[in-house]
Automatic annotation (TrEMBL):
<keyword id="KW-1133">Transmembrane helix</keyword>
<keyword id="KW-0808">Transferase</keyword>
<keyword id="KW-1003">Cell membrane</keyword>
<dbReference type="GO" id="GO:0048034">
    <property type="term" value="P:heme O biosynthetic process"/>
</dbReference>
<feature type="transmembrane region" description="Helical">
    <location>
        <begin position="122"/>
        <end position="142"/>
    </location>
</feature>
<comment type="similarity">
    <text>Belongs to the UbiA prenyltransferase family. Protoheme IX farnesyltransferase subfamily.</text>
</comment>
<feature type="transmembrane region" description="Helical">
    <location>
        <begin position="55"/>
        <end position="75"/>
    </location>
</feature>
<feature type="transmembrane region" description="Helical">
    <location>
        <begin position="96"/>
        <end position="116"/>
    </location>
</feature>
<feature type="transmembrane region" description="Helical">
    <location>
        <begin position="246"/>
        <end position="263"/>
    </location>
</feature>
<keyword id="KW-0350">Heme biosynthesis</keyword>
<dbReference type="GO" id="GO:0008495">
    <property type="term" value="F:protoheme IX farnesyltransferase activity"/>
</dbReference>
<dbReference type="GO" id="GO:0005886">
    <property type="term" value="C:plasma membrane"/>
</dbReference>
<feature type="transmembrane region" description="Helical">
    <location>
        <begin position="283"/>
        <end position="300"/>
    </location>
</feature>
<keyword id="KW-0812">Transmembrane</keyword>
<protein>
    <recommendedName>
        <fullName>Protoheme IX farnesyltransferase</fullName>
        <ecNumber>2.5.1.141</ecNumber>
    </recommendedName>
</protein>
<feature type="transmembrane region" description="Helical">
    <location>
        <begin position="224"/>
        <end position="240"/>
    </location>
</feature>
<comment type="pathway">
    <text>Porphyrin-containing compound metabolism; heme O biosynthesis; heme O from protoheme: step 1/1.</text>
</comment>
């Protein structure tokens, strides 16, 4: 990933420029993993779901997540303008009116929740609503500019999609999706704080109180490792608890071991040159692969019925 370049998939390059900007508002690259975890939550559920209903549920997760990305960019265009990584986004770059982003975000949010409620079920719609509100109000508006714990509490927003997928298929919430929620919840701090270590000057320039800016790199390194421990426990737990079979268990154990190794390297590293910081770059990149692989393994495991 090159964070200095466009956040859009290459297929989007063929679109008219205005469409590309609306797509960019939805943070499509981050949302691929959000949608994947939602899809896997749905496919791991014991109840089969009609393909059309299933597709609609995933579409609603994608649209709801996109809506919250647009509302996040509407609210923090001022901050985005101050950071190299985000200054090229449609609002800070002056290619779009703020009101257009607001209308797009609210319209998409309302549409996704209504469609989920009408075509899928009320529980899935309620959890989708909670995740949109969590990302936009709790994380973006309330916590992001106030406390370095912003991503711990507000980060729960990104942990809801497996619950939504499961609820879409079953109409309930059970222990396995609750564990998947906890997995993403504890995964988020190592994922983000590893990244924040090597882009901390951007956050400092924008006055955002991210952990390395407020508490320093040493504390951040330790926190990355500390949060990786409960994450590891929750990641492996479905196997001994009998909620997943050995395919998941073996993949989860191996990948989680490697995650802990990388997090340990981040904790032990004394690197202060932001341009280098190799262990944290490795952990950030691996964190994304890790979640894709774990959720993929869970679905394979459930389909094989092992
Ligand atoms: C509050 C919680 C989180 C924060 C603050 C955060 C922050 C970030 C940031 C700043 C980036 C760099 C993106 C860019 O280049 O613009 C990133 C990348 C990414 N994040 Fe997170 N993230 C969070 C949670 C999540 C969650 C829950 C997921 C999915 C389950 C996720 C998936 C990704 C992916 C896939 C990328 C790579 C995007 C790319 O290739 O450009 N993140 N994250
Ligand atoms: C289903 C649903 C509604 C899910 C939404 C949850 C969600 C999008 C979680 C991901 C969180 C995220 C992209 C944080 C980026 O931080 P930031 O906004 O501080 O990043 P930035 O600096 O790139 O703007």
């Amino acid at each position: 990933m090159n964070m200095a370049t466009s956040p859009l998939p290459t297929a989007a390059a063929a679109m008219p420029a205005e469409w590309r900007d609306f797509l960019a508002l939805t943070k499509p690259r981050v949302m691929t993993l959000v949608v994947f975890t939602g899809l896997c939550g749905m496919l791991a559920a014991p109840a089969p779901i009609h393909p059309v209903i299933g597709f609609t549920a995933i579409l609603c997760i994608a649209l709801g997540a996109g809506a919250s990305g647009a509302l996040n960019q509407w609210y923090e265009a001022d901050l985005d303008a101050l950071m190299k990584r985000t200054a090229g986004r449609p609002l800070p770059a002056g290619r779009m009116e703020r009101s257009s982003a607001l209308h797009f975000g609210v319209g998409l949010a309302v549409f996704s929740v209504l469609l989920m409620g009408l075509a899928v079920n009320l529980l899935a719609a309620a959890i989708l609503t909670a995740s949109i509100l969590f990302y936009v109000l709790v994380y973006t508006v309330w916590l992001k500019r106030r406390t370095p714990q912003n991503i711990v509490i507000g980060g729960a927003a990104g942990a809801f999609p497996p619950l939504i997928g499961w609820a879409a298929a079953t109409g309930t919430v059970d222990p396995l999706p609750a564990l998947l929620f906890a997995l993403i919840f504890f995964w988020t701090p190592p994922h983000f704080w590893a990244l924040s270590l090597f882009i901390r000057t951007d956050y400092a320039a924008a006055g955002v109180p991210m952990l390395p800016v407020v508490a320093g790199t040493r504390t951040t390194r330790n926190q990355v490792f500390l949060y990786s421990l409960p994450m590891a426990g929750v990641a492996v737990a479905p196997w001994p608890l009998g909620l997943a079979g050995y395919v998941y268990g073996v993949v989860a154990t191996g990948l989680t071991g490697f995650f802990l190794l990388l997090a340990g390297q981040v904790a032990l590293s004394r690197e202060t040159d932001q341009a280098k910081m190799r262990p944290e770059r490795r952990l950030f990149a691996f964190s994304i692969l890790y979640l894709f692989a774990l959720f993929g393994a869970l679905v394979v495991d459930r389909l094989l019925g092992l």
